[in-house]
Design brief:
The chain folds into 2 domains: about 10-250, Aspartate Aminotransferase, domain 2 (3-Layer(aba) Sandwich), CATH 3.40.640; about 250-370, Aspartate Aminotransferase, domain 1, CATH 3.90.1150.10. The chain is about 35% helix and about 15% strand. The protein contains 12 helices and 14 strands. The strands form 4 sheets. The chain has a 7-stranded mixed beta sheet with strand order 1-9-8-5-4-2-3, sandwiched between helices. A 3-stranded antiparallel beta sheet has the order 12-13-14, with no helix packed on it. Strand 2, helix 5 (about 90-95) and strand 3 form a beta-alpha-beta unit. Bound molecules: pyridoxal-5'-phosphate.
């Protein structure tokens, strides 16, 4: 059995090595290292995959969020409604841009933003709702879009964990996660469902004016070289990473299906377990399992994780501290579900290229621990 890792990146590389090495080698030979043909091709490929009009590649998923917020031209102090149980990126860029993150609690089943609590938080300063599609499953976008329309708010979807997931509206219409709001953002950090071999990110929109603006901001605020119309940043996806992504995008649906297979085995094993609750499946979204996260009940988590580590099974906690309890971003609020989850969730190894034997070993070791 291969050693178990939280996510095994090397096995996937070896599976596609000839194709990926060729693509990288083509870029090295072309000497178009920045904004080369591979980058333009990747924009087109991702636009086609997501069925979205504009994809603007950038340097990472955090930049993608920053550029998205910059493109909206919000007055200082504008409020951005976002889940309090999430990754730090959105809180961080809000603070850098002098915007105020307003944290909402999450749904006790999906762990995504609780749409029933959004309206009560809207003030005259609210400008944006920014859901995060956590762990690989879409937030309730239909409700979010209704609220946004009612109060004329922008919607930015942080899609870093859910690229490739399908959202299904009540009328049966299906859209790719990240393409429903005004702007979607994603990350190609190596461990993401579509990961490159360094840093990378992208921003997408169906709005032509926003598309133009996002492109300018990501490129020093210039449309024409050395003519700067707005304040921008320098945030580029390099050609080598784009070449890797062009190869891997062709296999994204396969990668997600492989993650779903692992999740299915875990689901089956832990269904009806007295201490472990498998991830909830939302009826209006597919799940691409960026993480496989169990909610535990009456489990000493540090002790459990240590016991697993001793047996060669890494585990992680995404995320151990709600955003408003972080020293840098403290707010005097309490979100009961966020706090309960930060003390009770644990994520298991998942990814492409896991062996049957590894999955069985993880399942048996966990089941034995509770026996
Ligand atoms: C990974 C991630 C990001 C940030 O991506 P980077 O490329 O690391 O900057 C933002 N939001 C979420 C939810 C993420 O999981």
């Amino acid at each position: 059995m291969k050693p178990i890792q939280m996510v095994d990146l090397a096995s996937q590389y070896h599976r596609f090595k000839p194709e990926i090495d060729n693509a990288i080698s083509d870029v090295l030979n072309s000497a178009s290292y920045i904004n080369g043909p591979a980058v333009k091709q990747f924009s087109k490929n991702l636009e086609a995959y997501l069925d979205v009009k504009h994809v603007i590649p950038c340097a990472n998923g955090t930049d993608a969020l920053q550029i998205a917020l910059m493109a909206l031209d919000l007055p200082e102090g504008s409020e951005v409604i976002t889940p309090g149980f999430s990754y730090i990126a959105l809180a961080e860029v809000c603070c850098l841009l002098k915007l105020k993150p307003v944290y909402v609690d999450v749904d006790k089943n999906t762990f995504n933003i609780d749409v029933n609590q959004i309206e009560a938080l809207i003030t005259k300063n609210t400008k944006v709702i920014a859901p995060v599609h956590l762990y690989g499953q879409c937030a309730d976008m239909e409700s979010i879009m209704k609220i946004a329309q009612k109060y004329s708010l922008f919607v930015i979807e942080d899609n870093a964990q859910s690229i490739g997931a399908d959202y299904v509206f009540s009328d049966g219409k299906v859209m790719k996660s990240g393409t429903i709001g005004d702007i979607g953002t994603t990350s190609f950090f190596p461990s993401k469902n579509l990961g490159c071999y360094g840093d990378g990110g992208a921003i997408y929109t169906n709005n032509d004016a926003l598309g133009e603006k996002l492109k300018m901001i990501a490129n020093h605020g210039q449309r024409v070289k050395y003519i700067h119309d707005v304040v921008g940043v320098n945030s580029r996806l390099d050609s080598v990473q784009a070449a890797v992504l062009n190869v891997k995008l062709n296999h994204l649906d396969t990668f997600n299906a492989e993650r779903q297979e692992v999740a299915k085995a875990y689901d089956l094993a832990f269904a009806n377990h007295k201490n472990l609750k498998p991830p909830f499946k939302s009826s209006n979204s597919s799940h691409v399992y960026h993480q496989y996260t169990l909610q535990t009940c009456a489990v000493d988590i540090p002790k459990f994780r240590e016991a697993m580590q001793e047996k060669g099974i890494p585990t992680m906690i995404y995320y151990p501290l709600p955003l408003y309890k972080q020293n840098a971003y403290q707010q005097d609020i309490q979100l009961p579900i966020a706090e309960m989850l930060s003390n009770s969730v644990v994520s298991l190894p998942i990814g492409t290229d896991m062996e049957e034997e590894q999955i069985k070993y993880i399942i048996n070791t966990i089941l034995n621990y509770f026996n």
